[in-house]
Amino acid sequence: MHADYKKILIVEDEQKIARFQQMELEHESFKTFIESNGRIALDRIIQESYDLVLLDIMLPEMDGIEICKRVRELSEVPIIMLTAKDDIIDKVTGLDTGADDYITKPFATPELIARIRAALRKNKTAPPSLNDSKLRVKKLVLYPERYEAHIDQQAIELTKKEYELLEYLIRNRNIVLSRERILQEVWGYEFMGNTKVVDVYIRYLRSKLDERCNQKYIYTVRGVGYVVKD
């Protein structure tokens, strides 16, 4: 095994599925571990050191959503949710609690590997804090180093993914961005996923920004995507 192999915890209660995932990942030179119990998995993620977690939603004792929520209070380890439910609400809930990505069962192994490598690469290349940087649009000010957004010096409560989406839109202000591009850049997908997630998060942001200050920030370009305008 190469010295810089990546350690992945597979949290899956179906033994055959977990073993298959383990075999495929070991073949790709990942070091893997398996846990079937949700509550024990939470303890292991917090106490042990992993480079990425594959987290099933349906688990005994504690489900994947709750695990992800609790892990995010202490750690930024990349988490990819695995779910048999092809339901946009489950996916949004998973992402909103801090998951980096989701994948719906059944899935092809090359797709899973691509998602894992994308999540690891994104975590490795995350930009360092920009000491005195601020991003401004109208009354809105973003502080990238603190993941904070303010309007008229009042903090706006945003989830991690909401903030990342807003920052991406602002850094590309006055550029119309397609849903597919937003999905790839903000969620780190290497292939086209369900772009409805983007629409859901745009609605979240509008409810917290546009409606709060009675000023429009995010514009829809019909048939194309979204843009933040000065």
Automatic annotation (TrEMBL):
**Keyword Transcription attributed:** yes
Recorded hits in SUPFAM superfamilies, A to Z, give:
C-terminal effector domain of the bipartite response regulators (SSF46894), CheY-like (SSF52172)
According to the entry, every stretch annotated as the OmpR/PhoB-type domain falls at: 132-230
Q: Indicate yes or no for the key word Transcription regulation.
A: yes
Pfam family, any one = Response_reg
What processes does the entry annotate via GO biological process terms?
regulation of DNA-templated transcription
Extract the DNA-binding region annotation as residue ranges. 132-230
Segments forming domain Response regulatory: 7-120
| GO terms of molecular function | phosphorelay response regulator activity; transcription cis-regulatory region binding
Q: Which residues carry this modification: 4-aspartylphosphate?
A: 56
- Annotated Gene Ontology cellular component terms: cytosol; protein-DNA complex
Query: Which UniProt keywords are present, listed alphabetically?
Result: DNA-binding, Phosphoprotein, Transcription, Transcription regulation, Two-component regulatory system
Q: Record's InterPro entries? A: CheY-like_superfamily, OmpR/PhoB-type_DNA-bd, Sig_transdc_resp-reg_C-effctor, Sig_transdc_resp-reg_receiver, WalR-like, WH-like_DNA-bd_sf
**Identification of the protein by name:** Phosphate regulon transcriptional regulatory protein PhoB (SphR)
Protein source organism: Sporomusa ovata
Tell me the organism's taxonomic lineage. Answer: Bacteria, Bacillati, Bacillota, Negativicutes, Selenomonadales
